[in-house]
Design goal:
Layout (H helix, E strand, L loop, with lengths): L6 H5 L30 H14 E2 L8 H5 L5 E5 L5 H9 L4 E5 L3 H14 L4 E4 L3 H8 L5 E7 L17 H10 E11 L2 H12 L5 E3 L17 H8 L5 E7 L5
The structure holds S-adenosylmethionine.
S-adenosylmethionine binds next to helix 6 and helix 9.
Catalytic activity: guanosine(46) in tRNA + S-adenosyl-L-methionine = N(7)-methylguanosine(46) in tRNA + S-adenosyl-L-homocysteine
GO molecular function: tRNA (guanine(46)-N7)-methyltransferase activity
Protein name: tRNA (guanine-N(7)-)-methyltransferase
Length: 253
């Protein structure tokens, strides 16, 4: 007998919105992700179903009210593609004076992140299971973010797939709208060609972004960024790591 489909099982079917052209044709989007069929374990499913009311946020086409969500005015840091969420939960635990929102399309990761946050008793974290580019565009108010972090995004190694990389000029334009003054952009990757691409794209916004690297390219791996699962895998394969850390300039700079 087929098991009854729960909220968590359905969620992976709603990670993006169907959009249409002006003349009513389905809009085929270039996605930065592939929806893997990875199995949602019973534990991850239960964690998602039981805690969504307190830890989950859904796509909405009006901005979130962060103060109402977190019950305070602390800066809100958005992380895109948190994977299984280990490093995000550790960061939230280490920075109780900040609020974190993690976005991930992979439901087993969302379940695992909620489970780990519950285990650690972390309260300053909410998770979203949806395409981050749609959330950023529709659900986040302009000037409302303290920072945006993107750690080890899918590198899309083949040249014909480079258009699927999430870091593109249009993405940075959108992030800049959402960041408050002095908000940060922190990227990390273990793929040199993607690091060079990230730097090249960010440098196009030199009038709005200050590169904190003393050498005007990458920073040393900062201690405040916990090791991510993907990074650990790369380390075992002997990969390098490139961190980029930029600050949005104030209007007066
Ligand atoms: C290579 S993994 C890295 C995961 C984690 N940051 C780590 O370092 O272990 C990249 C993740 O980004 C997620 N992702 C890619 N594009 C996304 C998007 N547009 N919105 C939300 N998540 C996305 C993928 O599902 C995947 O889990």
């Amino acid at each position: 007998m087929e098991q009854q489909k729960t909220f968590a099982d359905q969620k992976r079917k709603t990670v993006e919105r169907a959009e249409f052209t002006a003349d009513g044709r389905y809009l085929r989007k270039v996605r930065s992700f592939v929806l893997r069929t990875g199995r949602l374990s019973d534990y991850q499913r239960d964690m998602m179903n039981d805690n969504w009311a307190t830890m989950g946020l859904d796509y909405q086409n009006q901005p979130f009210d962060f103060k109402a969500i977190f019950g305070n005015d602390n800066p809100v840091i958005l992380e895109i593609g948190f994977g299984m969420g280990r490093s995000l939960v550790e960061m939230a635990e280490q920075n109780p004076d900040r609020n974190y929102i993690g976005i991930e399309v992979h439901t087993p990761g969302v379940g695992a992140c909620i489970a780990y946050a519950k285990e650690k008793g972390v309260k300053n974290l909410r998770v979203i299971c949806h395409d981050a580019t749609e959330i950023l565009r529709d659900s986040v108010a302009n000037g409302s973010l303290g920072g945006l972090q993107l750690y080890f995004p899918d590198p899309w190694q083949k040249a014909k797939h480079h258009k699927r990389r999430i870091v593109q000029p249009a993405f940075i334009t959108q992030v800049l709208e959402k960041l408050g003054e002095n908000g940060f952009i922190h990227f990390a990757t273990d793929w040199q060609n993607y690091a060079e691409h990230m730097l090249e794209v960010l440098q196009q916004f030199a009038d709005k972004l200050h590169n904190t690297s003393p050498t005007n390219d990458y920073i040393l791996r900062p201690d405040f960024r916990p090791l991510t699962k993907f990074e650990e895998r790369g380390q075992k394969l002997g990969h390098g790591v490139w961190d980029l850390y930029f600050i949005r300039k104030g209007e007066t700079l």
